[in-house]
Predict the 3D structure of the following.
Amino acid sequence: MDKVIIFDTTLRDGEQAAGAGLSAQEKLQIAQQLEKLGIDVIEAGFPISSPGDFEAVQLISRKVENSTVCALAHANPEAVDKAWEAIKKAKHPRIHVFLSASDIHLFYQLKKTRDEILQVSRDMVARAKRYTEDVEFSPMDASRTEPAYIYQILEAVIRAGATTVNIPDTVGYAVPQEYGDLITGILNNVPNIDKAVVSVHCHNDLGLAVANSLEAIRRGARQVECTINGIGERAGNASLEEIIMALKTRSDAYGLTTNIDTKQIYKTSRLVSELTGFIVQPNKAIIGANAFRHQSGIHQDGVIKKAITYEIMDPKTIGIPASSLVLGKLSGRHAFQERLAELGYTLEGEAFKHAFQAFKELADKKREVTDRDIESLIEEELRTASEVYHLDHIEVTCGDHSIPTATVRLIGPNGQAVADAALGTGPVDAVYEAINRIVRVPNKLTEFTVKSVTEGIDAIGEVLIRIESDGVTYTGRGASTDIIVASAKAYMNALNRLLATKKTRKD
Ligand code: KIV
Ligand code: ZN
């Protein structure tokens, strides 16, 4: 069977989504999980765009072993040189050069002629080729560009050394038939197209990114660019999990394979959601909370008799854990450890001890501890592992006839405990004010959401916040059965990410 190359751009196009904001360490964590997932090419970032992006791409290039690490560059010499500088230590480096091609972009944005664009594209691909064999070129806004001009550009860049030519539907304007025709046209009209892989890159403005990508693959494209959970600019990019599971579930229709280990999909999705702070909608295909839940009696009856009646995929193939037994306060270390392993976590030594204690405390408050509770608990453990300030103690008084007052104690960078108190307009405000009096980093709270992880009055509450400092957004998450404590933890998480980023910038 023919193979499709999976190019993941979660760390570049995905991170361009408003408010995603990942630190270099977080990007590395995602890159390493992408490698486990079996991604062929990881687009790690856009090195010339910021020192933070440069640093992240460099870090990923040094650590990732099996996947190709790709850096984006616009078609100018400094950007191409910077891209190479960032990825030169990678085992398999790729430079991805892009330049707008549509008349709309040329006329209104670049003020350049088609001939000038053609020349620069060719020159910058040749420049990238001096550094690495593996060069990709994208004529941006290709789906709104006259096909004959696209053929001309592609022929020129392939002659200059491009080994992959990518066809972006930059603004998500294409519809499947038309986008498929463009791919067929390219395969039939670019004389040297056999020397390059045709790639597709679709945005989701009309909700067609996955449909367009699949149609392009059906017509002969052999690389697909996508993101985990479909995150990306505006309405996002084509969702990786949907493309992969469509190719797998309907292999009768496509007859194609990939290198993806589908059992890693769920874990990767959770990690990206956790670190970017973008919650996955419940009805999202493949990885949404309701994707395998059956509500109606007829469906439940069918699934109990034979899953295939209403399930076209086995949730286990995506790595969604099958909860055979529910843990509770009588469950011991062994049961907890086994469940952790089933959920894909390996915690050892102190980390395990700590997580087990947190589980016991939770089991005391909650009759049944579900997989989602355990995931939330472990994510909380992982969040606190790299803190600058740790929330040690919190006490709040509030009510309809009292002024909300909070006392907090934090453990600082040198292990010293610092306590302070503050009043606020509400209990969360009072807690945040008290923390601010200790940490003292100016910031503005821009988003605050509370949701419950599972059903029931004793459920864990998860708080997601975003804060802004010096024009950069930082996301924070916290979980607890007490939503004021969860709010404090979320704020500490966002502040710690802010402090870590500021520290790396200084270093
Ligand atoms: O959407 C787009 O055109 C892009 C290019 C940089 C490939 O992201
Ligand atoms: Zn894009």
User: Anything to note?
Assistant: The pocket of 3-methyl-2-oxobutanoic acid (ligand 1) is lined by residues 13, 98, 138, 140, 166, 168, 170, 201, 203 (CB under 6 Å). The radius of gyration is 25 Å. The chain has a mean pLDDT of 92. The chain has four domains: 5-276, 292-323, 325-384, 386-506.
